[in-house]
Amino acid sequence: MDTTVELMLERVQDRGGYAARQQAAGVVQSVLEVLGAHLVGDDRTDLAQLLPLPCSPLLIDVVPASEPLTPTGFVEAVAARDDLEVGQARRAVTAVLTTVADVADDALLRRILTQLPPGHAGLFGRTDPV
Asked: With DSSP H G I counted as helix, E B as strand and the rest as coil, what are the percentages for the chain, rounded to 5?
């Protein structure tokens, strides 16, 4: 995948059904910051290296979460950050995380899903952990 910021935003905009690129950029920021707070170590930095350069700090420069989030909790955290309804937040989360899954190979995605509580695979557009 071409990992330019513009291509990433285009994919999120298309997948999320956003009218404006700015909306896509906002949800990318929120979702990556929530994800980054729940990943540690090489998995987080390996993923950050695969994303467009401006996205790396969104994953890395966040305070680690004190508790893991269920998939529903993950969506609710994004909803709270952006003052969205849960359905809108779920659309944002899946638009961003399926785009993230496009750049991660199966091994990295498996390691990421291992760090998260069960059930997150669906948010990445997978039916089962890879």
From this structure: 70, 0, 30
Residue 76 near residue 86, CB atoms below 8 Å: yes
**DSSP category for residue 116:** S
pLDDT at position 2: 47
pLDDT in tens, 87-123: 999 999 999 999 999 999 999 999 999 999 999 999 9
Q: What angle do CA 46, 49, 53 make, to 5 degrees?
A: 155
Report how far residue 66's alpha carbon sits from residue 97's, in angstroms, rounded to the nearest whole number: 21
| Degrees to nearest 5, angle at CA 78 with 34 and 12 | 85
Instruction: Specify the pTM.
Output: 0.93
